[in-house]
Fold:
Amino acid sequence: MGRYILKRLAIGAVTLFLLASATFFLMKATPGSPISAEKYKTQAAYEAAEKLYNLDKPIMEQYFLYIENLAHGDLGESMVKTGRKVTDTIKVGFPVTAKVGTVAFLAALIIGISLGTAAALSKKKWINNVCMFVATIGVSLPSFVLAIFMIVFIGVKLRLLPFIGLNTPANYVLPVISLSLYPISMICRLTRSSILEVMKQDYIILARSKGTPYRKVILKHALKNAMLPVVTYAGPAFAYLLTGSFVIENIYSIPGIGSEMVSALTTRDYPMIMGLTIFLGLLVISFNLLTDIISASIDPRIKLK
Amino acid sequence: MAMLEINHLTTEFTTENGIVKAVRDVSLKVEKGEVLGIVGESGSGKSQTMFSVMGLLAGNGKVVEGSIKLDGKEISPLSFENRKDYEKTMDDIRGNDMAMIFQDPMTFLNPVLKIETQLVEPIINHNPDISKKEARQRALELMRKVGIPSPENRIDQYPHQFSGGMRQRIIIAIALACNPKVIIADEPTTALDVTIQAQVLDLISSLKDTIDSSIIMITHDLGVVASICDRIAIMYGGKIVETGTAEEIFYNPQHPYTKGLLQCIANPEEERKKLHPIPGSPPDLLNISNECPFVDRCESAMKICKLAMNDYTSFSDTHSCSCWLQHDMAKGKGEE
Structure:
């Protein structure tokens, strides 16, 4: 187990390096520069700025310089917001995104699994139909459409809930709904089909033949088996929720790393783009590893090698 | 009084194509400590009869007629006011008074739960006050009883770490957990290798002497039946066509189907002789009428066999058979 984790971490480091390199060159290949003519009005000021940020050097030299700093754990400073360190931006922005993301993820897990279980096991057909209807809408409706729709009706017309920033708990409601509807629907569908499959298995009959009540058979024998596909989906899904939705954070004016990323991209803020990309990559890689470890702890037949 | 008494049991399955009558008017009796073999080919309704008794029918299956008495107590689902009462009563009975050994050891154990969890489950279900430690001790005892070496190490393992034969022993141990009055073994050797089959059969026949449970052995293998059963019921097309003691069935078979079955057993001691398979295939149980289910394959079929089945003719207290050849007017027919 320990060796497996070490191996995965090593592979993760290589992946991160490749991700950083690819992002670096792609970024340089795009036209535009963080040194805007509006900010640096004279030619001399412009050239001085280029020199300051090493942008006058050949690309390969810039690349090696960046990798060298990265190896020391230095993600650099923003080229647009003078004096702003990339690590500080992450320190400020990530907790905000993580709070919304975690609430959305927990909501998705609890609501998704409950709805999926109800849809699979309820004797009443309409419950299944309603769950599947909601799940289909949730999978096909883009989150920004829902977000704007809710701002217009619930926020502006009915004035039921605030929709700017994250100052009060009530502020969380709309962004969390917008973020979690898709994972709720996915988890609901996965749980439902997986439970239906598991309930047909022979070991359910054996469990019932021991005199275990139906409800307990579901909790003890069916759910654990049925959760495997859900875990496989939920791990990476949590990583994406934690990296913040670029669109949702912008729509609800949430100062998380998602909106930082969007502004970094529009201003060509090279160190910021690089730093945030590497951080998000790190999150995704760690959650994939976590998913595999959880899967192996659920199903003893999965061997971590 | 019989330990398990089934009278006129009829079970139907609702399918897309119509109603399948899997069990039709079956009556059976098992005395205390007796081993009853139910023999029949695939789809003859032998397993579904016992699933009806255990209340473990698939969702589309339903007992529509008949009574089931366990130790004098009526437990047919028809005798309960609603499903909830029935399930509650059966949860107390299943694993406690009545237990089942299943066919395929590879699929009947839960792959994600430890052997201990699965083995103590019936013990805890029916002894809610027992301590965890005590339940584990009893589970270890059961594992020793069914011949699993070093149970202390193996109890914490998962099913995939066991071989097929060892898993079947675990399934048998689960059935024995609460010393049930009736054990139903549903083709317990069918899915095993031949050498392992013999071991498991040996285990069951040695257990039969140490416990006082009645055993119902469902099988399509007459050899299995011959070695351990006191009495035999032959099932065909959802009906019991002949019942009798092992001796009566083997040395004095009356129904043409029973005779056909016996001709299919290979005997290594006899000289090479051709086996006689029964031509044709079993009847479609979808919307089957009152005719004898064997009529299309029977060499001595008569016109009346197409119209109805004969009542049971008794040859002794234990031996009876349902066939028109036994009717006074048909005497002498069908003899070779």
Remarks:
- The radius of gyration of chain A is 24 Å.
- Chain A has a mean pLDDT of 90.
